[in-house]
Amino acid sequence: MGSTMRIPFTDFEASSRLILDLDPGKNGMTGQIFKYTPGMSYQDVIANSFEEFSNEMLKRLQANHFSFVDDVIAFDDLYVV
């Protein structure tokens, strides 16, 4: 992850991170959100934009489809885990 065009905006115990990608590869979209796990070459795109990601988070919070586990929000379907 040497690109300066990728902005991490979450970090959980030095494992998975969510990244705002401003310089995607040829099959990606500028502004997509992907999950990055150090040591893994696979990157899971979870939203095509920060707006899409934010709307999905809001929808899940408003529907009350989450719980708190050790002071961390955990979604019932493990979204973004």
- Assembly state (oligomeric): single chain
Distance between the termini: 19 Å
Number of helices: 1
| Overall mean confidence score, pLDDT | 83
| Beta-strand share of residues | 25-35%
Order of helices and strands: EEEEHEE
User: Rough shape?
Assistant: globular
Spatial order of the strands forming the largest sheet: 1-2-3-4
Radius of gyration (CA) equals 13 Å
Give a short synopsis of this structure.
This protein has 81 residues and is of the alpha+beta class. The protein is built from one helix and six strands.
Descriptive account of the structure:
The protein has 81 residues and is an alpha+beta fold. Helices cover 16% and strands 31% of the residues. It is built from one helix and six strands, in the order E-E-E-E-H-E-E. It starts with 5 loop residues before the first strand and ends in a 6-residue tail after the last strand. 7% of the residues are buried. The model has no long low-confidence stretch (mean pLDDT 83).
